[in-house]
Amino acid sequence: MMGRTIFIDPGRCIGCQACVSACRECDSHRGKSMIHLDYPDEGRSVASLPTVCMHCEDPVAPCAEVCPADAILVTPDGVVQQADTTRCIGCANCVNACPFGVPKIDLQAKLQMKCNLCYDRTAYGLAPMCATVCPTGALFYGTVEELRAERPGVQVADSFTFGTTTVSTGVAMVVPADKVQWPVPGGLPVVEINGKDVR
Amino acid sequence: MTEPPQTAEPTPPPGGPAPASGATDPAAADPPPQSPGAVRRRASLVGAVVSALLVVAIVLGSRLLRDFDSALLPYAVATVFLAFGVAYRYTVWISAPGARRLFRKGWGSFFSVANFRSAPTALPRMIATYLGFQKFLGARSHARWAAHQLVFWGCLLAAAITFPLTWGWFTFTSSTGSGPGYEMRIWGFKVLGFDSLNIVGWLMFHGLDIAAVLVIPGAGYFLWRRMKDRGAITGQRFAYDLVPLLALIVISVTGLLLTFSSIFLHGGGYEFLAVLHMVSVVFTLIYIPFGKFFHIVQRPAAVGMQLFKYTSRRKDEGGEVFACRRCGQPVDTAPYVENLQGTMRDLDLGFADWAEYCPRCKRVLRGTAYLDHVKKGFK
To answer: What are the transmembrane regions (chain A) (predicted)?
Structure first.
């Protein structure tokens, strides 16, 4: 996990979309929001899940690994940047390989875009746009010590399981104290599709 | 802005997880990735062979150096280094799993007789719109498209003139010694006779000036953008983003100053300018394989990728479009998904099955798992 990073607490998310609007203001992708806000149990629950790029550390950035054009750069501080506009060929490998479903693609522009942790801000010590505007603290930017100073005893997890693979990330999620010992399930293997058990 | 690529009508979503298209393991048909040392050795060998072939081509094309202009020797030597560097980096590049599979699929589509029969205009159209007129850049920004077109055509014109000239393949000779009648010869064969005092002659002798006039405003715009546009400034690197633009501008300006010196200064400062121009060109040629300019070499491979996807999509009567296993929205063509899964297996990414779900469903399924197993009700 990076020193200063985003901590996501879906339990605090109220689905207000402030993060989605603020993300559009980021200089590196003006007018286009890179954060995803999904409703996993839509129609039955108001639960919402904000998703930013998790900046995978191990394996390092699967999106960059599958890129045939070497377009995705990982900076020394662990931030997985969006595709280099000169190199990206719009093949969508990164879009479909990302285990968290983060990158977007503009097929006309043949260009991938994704959350880059607001590098224009975080490189200068400022919080990303989404964390700056989140009214409930569902998106918190800082160190884990700063998080715990605000929320005593809070536990975070930075590894996720996808089948037999565990992915360690630079961005972390808040988890209950009794669940911190094991990685957060990433959704694979899929056990149910549209109410039907597919195990 | 879309998430899953919008393709033709998808096949109905299947009942549960299964390999894409029911195909055999695509990784099994592919040789295992080579070690970095083996890749470097192969790349060095390919680079050496390509540069040796270029030297042979220069010697033969200049009629055993009879037409070779020794004043242009540094340029010719730089192109030999360029050939080595490009071949080396290209080999290393296509040895990586993602690029290797793209390379094979692209060339497979390119040489496919069946593809040619079913869509004979697809390849020329893609080359024209993608490589020539770069329509995709217009979707990013009209100003960037216009500036890139200027740089692109200017550089293409300059390369078409300079490379054969420095290799001794082009010669301009006059039977009267000082003109105005000139003959243009390629490999010793006369292809064109012209009067240096008419418009054709002016264009022939000022081709590089025209190229410079095209490149300077294009590269100047990009340089201005790199100074002013906050999106472009984010994460930009001097050596990668600014040096190429500065190099193009220095080459173009010094090239124009050579003409200026010749016409208006009676050759004043010509030797100094010639050395400065030569140094900037040699530096740029040697820099091409190692920086931003490598996209010139890489970009044509994208046509192969587009052709691969396009021809796969055309077969969609046979269910070639792969639908998300959860929501049924198209993910991409089935051969593409299969190819990606092969790449992921090559890279030991143990979640290749996940590629059969669209990005939104991946997020929703992860949210559901979090809701069910980590924090019930997100409380």
So the answer is: none
